[in-house]
Write a structure and sequence with these properties.
globular; Aminopeptidase; 11 strands; about 35% helix; 7-stranded mixed beta sheet; alpha/beta; single chain; two-stranded antiparallel ribbon
Length: about 250
């Protein structure tokens, strides 16, 4: 499916870093393989949250730079394939996203779906695995963003943390953020919770390895420029750094 003119299916920043933290951003980009054209969608739709996590890639890059930590980013739109979904999930290749039909995903044949898995999803997660195998890691964080309004629901949190088996890490980072910025509204398992039907990255890389972990969701109307993304990266780097110091022997 991917050709010479297409982007690589994964980008790794600070690949040689031996820092104990691994970062990922599964919805960093909105690229589409040339063979799929525009997915049957106007550019205005590809600018929306359904195509990628607005601002998340920028926060993740800045956070990786501050921590000198390795970061794995997915440049392809989650409308092509969602790298944070089990591959057999109905919305891994969504025919409809937030009420918007995706023509290129309608009646997708199994072979075509498998191409997206083999050429985009699998290389991404292989790159994450390689970072864990390269040296000892103690913490894993997936950087996401969410839209304030979805399906008629107002989602007021500034940031949310999600985990099933490591609530302590979420709570520790949240407490540090509150100390830095007391006015923050922080959601725990909001606006999403981790489950096996809708999540792949945290269960597969975080829970399975038993490292400290959390999915981090920042409301995207706070990420509308480079300076705003930088502020969030600085706060998160402070909180993650404090977590690592506190749990040096964990």
């Amino acid at each position: 499916m991917l050709s010479e003119i297409d982007r690589a299916p994964v980008e790794v920043v600070n690949s040689e870093s031996s820092r104990p933290v691994v970062l990922v951003c599964e919805h960093a980009g909105r690229s589409v393989p040339a063979v799929l054209g525009d997915l049957g969608l106007p550019q205005s739709v590809m600018d929306l949250h359904i195509a990628y996590d607005i601002g998340a890639g920028s926060v993740a890059r800045k956070l990786a730079a501050i921590l000198d930590a390795p970061l794995v980013l997915q440049p392809y739109s989650r409308l092509v394939i969602d790298c944070n979904r089990p591959v057999d999930a109905g919305d891994a290749v969504p025919p409809v996203s937030d009420g918007v039909e995706v023509p290129a995903n309608r009646d997708l044949q199994p072979a075509a779906r498998q191409q997206r898995i083999d050429e985009i999803f699998t290389p991404f997660h292989q790159a994450v695995t390689a970072l864990f195998e390269r040296c000892e890691r103690r913490a894993f964080f997936a950087i996401h963003s969410f839209t304030r309004h979805l399906a008629g629901r107002e989602r007021h949190w500034n940031i949310g943390f999600a985990a099933r088996k490591d609530r302590i890490t979420c709570a520790t980072i949240a407490d540090r953020l509150r100390a830095l910025s007391p006015q923050l509204e922080i959601g725990m398992n909001e606006p999403y919770a981790i489950d096996d039907e809708s999540d792949w990255t945290i269960p597969f890389h975080g829970e399975k390895r038993g490292v400290m972990h959390s999915l981090i969701e920042i409301r995207n109307d706070q990420l509308d420029d480079d300076q705003a993304c930088g502020r969030w990266a600085e706060m998160l780097s402070d909180a993650i750094g404090a977590l690592l110091v506190k749990n040096q022997k964990r």
